[in-house]
Amino acid sequence: MKLRIQNIVVLMLCLFVFSGCGVSQDNSDDALSNAEMQETDIWESTQETDEEATVVAELGSEELLDAFLAGEIPAFYGDGDEGSILFDQLSHDEDEWDCHSVGERIDLDNDGENEQIVNGPYGGIYFDARDGKVYVLAEGEGTAGFLSYAVYDNATWIVHSDTTHAGRQTYWLTRFDGGGNIVDEFKLGAEYWESADGTYDENSDFTYRDEEISMEEYEKLIKEIFGL
Predict the structure, then answer these.
(1) Is-contact 121 173, C-beta < 8 A?
(2) CA 192 vs CA 62, 143, 171, 201, 208: distances in Å
(3) pLDDT score of 7 more than 90
């Protein structure tokens, strides 16, 4: 009796093992097939991405700026992980205070190629196309950092200014030399916190490149840089 039971148990174990192997093999074949399909899809997707990247990298600066304005490529805030933005993400509603519109193209970083000005709040945003990508060169930073540009000393300077707050006039000027590289920058300003009429006079504090200057020198620089 024991021998018969043992034989039955052995037979059942064999059937279970063989049956399990069959299922395992089928599942293995299916898994292999799915893996091959996924690998093919990934390869094709990678090929398409590489081809698109190659095409974009071969575009000139004007074409890259056109592609950005068309919403086809983003603009990056830097070479690292600073993020990016699409033109369509900006507000274009003329009834809204933060409406953006396409402005002129001029050389803002002194590299011989035009950058794109997008008009908007606090002076808007300046976009630079280089090395197969579009980058944010500069943007308005509120009423204490209004964005503009000036041509001074045979170069174009990016200007952030604060001229709407009481007691001060401040200008920060930055000169680029292509490639997003800053080659010179300085601060020009006047402080007159205790002025009775809200304007500066001979007794106010004036600075240029961290050095004290006179009111006459300050006004001369303002005229030379901004034509005011």
Answers:
(1) no
(2) 45, 18, 15, 8, 15
(3) no
Supply the pLDDT for residue 81.
72
pLDDT at residue 35, as a whole number? 57
Pick from 177, 168, 153, 175: nearest CA to 226: 153
Dihedral over alpha carbons 177, 141, 98, 61 (to 10 degrees): 10
Q: What is the pTM of this model?
A: 0.76
CA distance 113 to 177: 11
Return all residues near 19 (Cβ < 8 A) that are at least 6 apart. Answer: none
d(CA 211, CA 208): 5
CA-based nearest residue to 131, from 199, 51, 76: 76
Q: DSSP of 19-82, one letter per residue?
A: HHHHHHHHHHHHHHHHHHHHHHHHHHHHHHHHHHHHHHHTS-HHHHHHHHHTTSS-EESSSSSS
d(CA 106, CA 202): 38
For residue 93, what are the contacts with CB-CB under 8 A and spacing of at least 6? 99
Distance CA(32)–CA(45), nearest Å, equals 20
> Can you tell me the distance from the alpha carbon of 110 to that of 185, in angstroms, rounded to the nearest whole number?
14
**How far lies 169's CA from each of 19, 196, 201, 214, in Å?**
86, 16, 12, 14
Q: Tokens for 5? A: 């039971």
The structure tokens listed for 16 are 């279970």
